[in-house]
Amino acid sequence: MKILLTGATGQVGFELKRSLQTLGEVIAVERAQLDLSDLDQVRDVVRQVKPGLIVNAAAYTLVDKAESEPALAHRINAEAPAVMAAEALRLGCRMVHYSTDYVFDGSKQEPYLETDAVNPVNVYGRSKLAGEQAIAAAGIPHLILRTSWVYGLKGKNFLLTMLRLASERSELRVVADQHGAPTWSRTIADTTAAILHRGESGGAQWWECNSGIYHLSSQGQTTWAGFTEAIIAQAKLDCTVVPITSAEYPTPAKRPFNSVLCSDKLRERFCDIPDWNTALSLCLEHR
């Protein structure tokens, strides 16, 4: 199988480039080769590669900056996936796409299910929701995998920022009233590959039965402050975490207070996912 992987140098794309190798020929493209803001280029690349599977790991992820660049965020996160889906339909191709916990408003007290009502509270969340809807409307075999609080050992992310700051300072003030599940980029990539292996053995009937939205997020939950405390403890750094409220750390984009996703549907159908603390330990072992 020929696989077109977008966002190959991003946190998730970097890991997918490795994990997807056992499934077939991976054509991994980065922004220099495929800029999702150029819809004509998106269309041209898909037509040139003629993949049997598109794995879209590219996205506009600057949550705060999206508030001042809504058109660009929408083009990359909604219009570009819509073009990919339309081309997939023309080719008879399948598609995997990654979405976010930010499609929810955070008002629910329990972990969010795939069937819960969506209501994004910021531009980024709205753009990602529009991408989900465009892919579903295309009528192609697809998997939309919502994840949360993604981190890894590559690029810019919360883990690397906290490791740097904790090595430079004796105290960190971190938000403690937003709840979620930190998810290692390698967990996302390896889980995706495990699911796709099942799909390859199951064929068209498997895709017909299993297409749809799944939550792919680490088990358990914490806060940004709790995540920071775990990072500092496991990295054996000497730094104190001072919990603060979201009001004490205002940002251009509003964040949901509850971003916890229930991944039971994915776990019951496909494979298990480690809890966030175990995954963090594994990640730091690779540092």
Descriptive terms for the model:
9 helices; six-stranded parallel β-sheet; alpha/beta; 287 residues; two-stranded parallel sheet; globular
Characterise this structure.
This protein is α/β, with parallel strands linked by helices and 287 residues long. It has helices at residues 11-19, 39-49, 70-91, 123-138, 158-168, 185-210, 224-235, 264-269, 276-285; strands at residues 2-6, 25-28, 53-56, 94-100, 142-147, 150-151, 171-175, 179-180, 183-184, 212-215, 222-223, 240-244. It contains nine helices and twelve strands. The strands form four sheets. A six-stranded parallel beta sheet has the order 2-1-3-4-5-10, sandwiched between helices. The protein is globular and about 55 Å long.
Question: What does this entry show, briefly?
Answer:
The protein has helices at 11-19, 39-49, 70-91, 123-138, 158-168, 185-210, 224-235, 264-269, 276-285, and strands at 2-6, 25-28, 53-56, 94-100, 142-147, 150-151, 171-175, 179-180, 183-184, 212-215, 222-223, 240-244. With 287 residues, it is of the alpha/beta class. The strands form 4 sheets. The protein has a 6-stranded parallel β-sheet with strand order 2-1-3-4-5-10, sandwiched between helices. Strands 6-9 form a two-stranded parallel sheet.
